[in-house]
TrEMBL record:
Organism (species): Parapusillimonas granuli
Keyword Methyltransferase: no
Record-given protein name: LysR family transcriptional regulator
Pfam families per UniProt: HTH_1, LysR_substrate
Residues annotated as domain HTH lysR-type: 2-59
Any one GO molecular function term: transcription cis-regulatory region binding
PROSITE patterns attached to this UniProt entry: HTH_LYSR (PS50931)
Length: 297
């Protein structure tokens, strides 16, 4: 049976051209190196080196096997690096997240992190994507789950998930049992994400294109506030139905039949890469798996 000590000996004898030099490199004796090479040759039933008056050289088969030996040692090194890196997921991670994810799958991620990496402390910051990007750029957070791709060449990113948007209203507005035009919706104040958000700007464009010159749009950075205002019948809103599933099932809120709706929210994990970003990359990859599992549930 071949072991890594034998493979190490084979590679270094081939690289350095002598058993003595390989023994010095591996901090062992020349007889030990000779024994390892002999055992490897016996296990493989082939000669690896030709011994002669001028020294040693690889046989044709030994030359062919050398590249395989190099790959095996590289894989061993990678495996050890991964094993050590898992233990390095510790300390404090400053994680920023959009509120939509708080209401969908973020709690699953936090639970997984607690189970897999008990030495890691997560400091959670919940805010709008606009604010989180600024905090990331200022190094006030380490990782941000935000809407849209990176806006800076310094940012690395992983795609997480996508949530469709919809027009939502309280049944008291009596808009839910028929097709509704944008002109009809324009008679109400529209409640949605803050002014700097993609949905806000998309709604503004849709209403203006429908002939509403001065649309009333109430933007809020608080998703809970948007939901409460919609429940009270102040006006229809545009949000992701995924965050109000219970309210929809209970009939407290309804998805409206409107021809045009702003594009879906695409979420990405973003961070600024450094030589010490292993923990951030590990959490980002785990978040991607959690988000995809939630999407399939």
């Amino acid at each position: 049976m071949i072991d890594f000590k034998q493979i190490d000996a084979f590679v270094w004898v081939a690289e350095l051209g002598s058993f003595r030099a390989a023994a010095e490199k591996l901090n062992t004796t020349q007889p030990a190196i000779s024994q390892r090479i002999a055992a490897m040759e016996k296990a493989m039933t082939t000669r690896l080196f030709e011994r002669g008056a001028r020294g040693i050289k690889l046989t044709d088969k030994g030359q062919e096997l050398l590249s395989h030996a190099h790959r095996m040692l590289e894989l061993r090194s990678e495996m050890l690096t991964v094993a050590k890196a898992q233990n390095a997921v510790r300390g404090t991670l400053r994680l920023g997240s959009s509120e939509t994810l708080v209401h969908t799958w973020l709690h699953h991620l936090i639970d997984d992190l607690h189970q897999k990496y008990p030495a890691l402390v997560v400091e959670l910051h919940v805010d709008t994507s606009h604010v989180l990007r600024a905090q990331l750029a200022a190094h006030q957070i380490d990782l941000a789950f935000v809407v849209g791709r990176p806006q800076s060449p310094k940012e690395c990113h992983l795609y997480l998930c996508e949530y469709e948007l919809a027009w939502i209203a309280s049944p008291r507005l009596k808009l839910h049992r028929k097709p509704v035009t944008l002109t009809e919706l324009g008679a109400y104040p529209i409640i949605t994400y803050p002014t700097v958000s993609q949905p806000y700007q998309a709604i503004k464009t849709l209403l203006e294109e429908a002939g509403i010159k001065t649309p009333r749009i109430y933007g809020s950075a608080s998703l809970s506030t948007i939901v409460q205002m919609t429940l009270r019948g102040i006006g229809p809103s545009v949000i992701a139905p995924a965050v109000i599933r219970e309210e929809i099932l209970e009939g407290k809120l309804c998805v409206l039949n409107v021809e045009k709706t702003p594009e879906a929210l695409g979420f990405h994990a973003c961070w600024i890469d450094t030589p010490h970003s292993h923990t951030v990359r590990t959490v980002a990859r785990l978040a991607q798996r959690v988000a995809q599992a939630a999407a399939q549930a």
